[in-house]
Design goal:
The protein is of the alpha/beta class and 279 residues long. The protein has one domain: Purple Acid Phosphatase, chain A, domain 2. It has 7 helices and 10 strands. The strands form 2 sheets. It has a 6-stranded mixed beta sheet, with helices on one face. Helix 1 crosses helix 2. The chain is globular, with a radius of gyration of 18 Å. The mean pLDDT is 96.
Length: 279
């Protein structure tokens, strides 16, 4: 079974025509003879547009390819609440779901993920981080009735249960999520952040990346062999931590220096998309 995985396409931010992207992606996936395509979040700044896109993509490729997607923070900015995202909102929506790859012992487990500030030295002051987020961070507009650490604690319960079920079933696991799943994947703060204000901003940025607690859980679960995430943009080499290798197939934002390695959106998307033949 051949699968493909992508993340962070940001069609609206990259000013890509959705109809053209959908047709081109469907054509490419069919030509590659992919059996399943997983998208790990951040397609639009509106969940309803993201859901409609993948419903249309599934219809376009038909029964030849299974389409599944997660919601990144950008998808959650409008058109959905955090509580609604815990429901099965569409057949293609892959949060709190798994898929056993036919003819193999592989299980792909999906969870949107979240963050709890634990990649930052400001984690000891969660109220201050939350207040900064409301004022300066795009995620401040996301509708959720709980704090970020509480939301991430719920993610941990979900993922732990999924991993335990996979272990009981004798499965090798590919875990897919949007947010950064291990502290070792977080790049060092840029050297040009020299003033206390700049360094504080950098620490606030790190606070919104993911959770070191999820990383510890994955590290303690030897059945997890591959982990794929997005959220961070750029070209990152795969890293092996414990029994698992970690990958990032984020397309990124064209206007930001260093995020694109190719000229056009489809060239960048094809270059960054992971394609694996699972046996």
């Amino acid at each position: 079974m051949k699968i493909a995985i992508s993340s962070d396409n940001h069609l609206d931010v990259n000013q890509v025509d959705p109809a053209q992207a959908l047709a081109a992606q469907a054509k490419w996936l069919l030509e590659q003879q992919v059996g399943a395509y997983f998208f790990l979040g951040d397609l639009f700044n509106n969940f309803q547009k993201t859901r409609a896109y993948f419903t249309a993509l599934q219809a376009r490729v038909g029964s030849q390819i299974m389409i599944r997607y997660l919601a990144g923070n950008h998808d959650q900015l409008t058109g959905v609440t955090a509580a609604q995202l815990e429901q099965r909102l569409a057949p293609e929506y892959f949060h709190q779901a798994f898929w056993d790859v036919p003819g193999t012992d592989w299980r792909i487990i999906g969870n949107n993920g979240w963050y709890d500030y634990s990649f930052s030295n400001l984690a000891v002051s969660p109220a201050a981080v939350a207040q900064w987020k409301k004022v300066y961070w795009i995620d401040g507009s996301i509708t959720q009735a709980e704090s970020d650490p509480v939301r991430m604690a719920r993610v941990m319960v979900q993922v732990k249960a999924q991993l335990q079920a996979a272990q009981a079933a004798g499965k090798r696991v590919i875990f897919v999520t949007h947010f950064v799943p291990a502290e070792a994947l977080v790049p060092p703060l840029p050297a040009h952040l020299t003033t206390p204000r700049q360094q504080r901003f950098g620490q606030m940025f790190n606070a919104m990346l993911g959770s070191q607690h999820l990383g510890a859980l994955l590290l303690q679960t030897p059945q997890v062999k591959r982990v794929v995430s997005g959220h961070l943009h750029g070209e990152f080499a795969p890293q092996t931590l414990g029994a698992a290798t970690y990958y990032n197939p984020a397309v990124g934002v064209r206007r930001r220096p260093g995020e694109w390695q190719r000229t056009t959106f489809m060239e960048q998307w094809a270059y960054r998309t992971l394609v694996w033949n699972l046996r």
